[in-house]
Here is the input.
Amino acid sequence: MGTDFYMNTEGRKGVLSWILSTDHKRIGLLYLYAVLGFFLIGVIIGLLMRLELMAPGRTIVNARAYDSLFTLHGIIMIFFFIIPGVPSSLGNFFLPLQIGARDVAFPRLNLLSWWLYVIAGLTAISTIFLPGGPPDTGWTLYPPYSIKTPTNVSGTALAAFIVGFSSILTGLNFITTIHRLRAPGMTWFRMPLFTWTLYSTAWVQVLATPVLAITLLLLILERAFGTGFFDPAKGGDPLMFEHLFWIYSHPAVYVMILPAMGIISEIVPTFSRKTVFGYKAIVFSGLSIATLGYVVWGHHMFTSGMSDVSSMVFSFITFAVAVPSGIKVFNWIATMYKGSVEIKPPLLYAFAFIFLFSIGGLTGLVNSAVATNVHIHGTFFIVAHFHYTMFGGAGFAFFTGLHYRLPKMTGRMYNFRASTVACIVLFIGFNILYFPMFLLGWQGMPRRYYDYPPEFHGNNFISTIGSWILAAGLLIMFINLARSLFKGEKAGNNPWDGTTLEWQVSSPPPQENFEKIPHITRGPYSREKNIL
Amino acid sequence: MQALVKYTDDVDAKMGMWLFLFTEMLFFGGMFLLYAVYSTKYSADFSGSSSELNRVIGTFNTLILITSSFTAALSLSEIKKGALQSASICLGITALIGIVFLIMKYIEWSAKIGHGIYPGSAYLNEMAHGKVLFYSLYFVMTGIHAFHVLIGIAVFIVILFMLRNGTVRENNSIKLENAALYWHFVDIAWIYLFPLLYLLR
Here is the structure.
């Protein structure tokens, strides 16, 4: 014992010791690098889009290329960055450590899910080079246009189908792991909150993703054989596609945000030197977000043609989701109240998350009211809203999690000053990039349009400048984190004075997670020492 | 390096299988949703087309598939008693029935395709919208179901080899148990497909 997991190659050499390993820690890192790779591609495409929109008329690409840019940006960011992001990378690495397990329940399926993810990613990228070219439908792939377009929609749908399989396997693995492999004494209500959110997320992954799978398969069959399910010319109904698509894709936004909330729920008590306020409230709000999230998909379709009754019901349930989300925010604030708050980089990123996510959440209420929704549907207001929740929320929480947990994963600490600077630059850049979009949307600028009248120029210009500031922030942040891998000081086993199990093992964790499976006798955020 | 500790058991494996079956239910659920909407919208066309399907083959396939679920369950109870030989025989019969099911499906499909009825055919596209959608649903639903049957047969053949080389035996039968669970799901899915597609009037 005593060797960390980097040293144990299971008799394989070089890269094979990674891509064939069934160790959850290695798979977690594989996922981390793959996910960050796709994030980078998505960011570059996003920057190109912003550059194009900097001035009216053609700036760098033609309209056709712009359509492909926003489609690829959406597909890559949603299916290959945010959905798998936190659960597959940080989740894989830390779930078994947090519950005192040796590994996940199905290590080989875990590896398979990474392979499927990579194959799916390459399939999505390959559409750029294959005949037909990249899709130009938007990531939602709405028919009838997605049936008619000559671009490579089928390849993209196949990629999302495969990555869905990967997501299902991860979810199935996590549920079984959490049910069956908790250490003795680790009762349900002694589980860390990050684990709890992974649990809620895993259920959504298992119960929603198959609906997307069949929808995409039907779309592929529609394009290949002309089955007619979504083709009005043959009696089919495109609206059915929208329903099926959002039955998955709305719950999917909770796959993105729930683990993010889990990350924040751990960091706030750690840096407040207090136990978390309202542990059970956070647990149950997470579960109810997962449950309610399953039945709000109709709010994407208020202008698509639904009965008024359904619209009102969907609108009401959507408002209801705001309640458990609000509960979490109040709990985080209440945890900090009268705590000895120590503002270190992870907490700083968590503050940025709470602020940005609150704006995203509150503007979500504007969208969920049917009357205002009709006004702003399909405008830049929506773009701003979901970037505040998905990027400002899930994305920033991912950064928060990286700053909190990377020292444990690598055993090395990054530079605090650089990460603080990065956080501030990111925060400023983010708001300059996305806040003008609220104004543009409110004024009526539609999303997914290549050109705009001159009166929208000002805000678009500011937004593009913001995108560069944001990119600079990302650059500082990632260089700082990458530098820590090679030049960082030794982090020590518990740099943040964390209380959950993963902080009790060495950094980086040993090959065998726990020499002896621990016996748990206290809650996850209790500040009594020595549980191993 | 120390020996790997076995830290999972059969209950874990079975739970994973059940979760997978949940996903299968929702996967088929998407098609049943389409069926529900379109059969309501085009009820006359649906019952009209339904009576054009071959009910004899449909009924025959239903009966043999239920029987195969029985032989799969029998194989499991045999292996738990330690009767490896008869477990293999039961499993072999199950796989064989699966193959017969697919052959009947092939005959049925070729007859329809021979008449020019398949998704996207010019002949079908000229028919009423309800008929187009019914036959598309028929081919897609039975096709995806047949694909599941095919996977089941492949899994059974692998397990037959495992029975021979001793990987699957009386105190290690979880692979067979999970395969049987999967097969029961394939069977139940068919039990819904059969009346919905063949028995409308």
Q: What stands out?
A: Residues 46-198 of chain B form a domain with the Four Helix Bundle (Hemerythrin (Met), subunit A) fold (CATH 1.20.120.80).
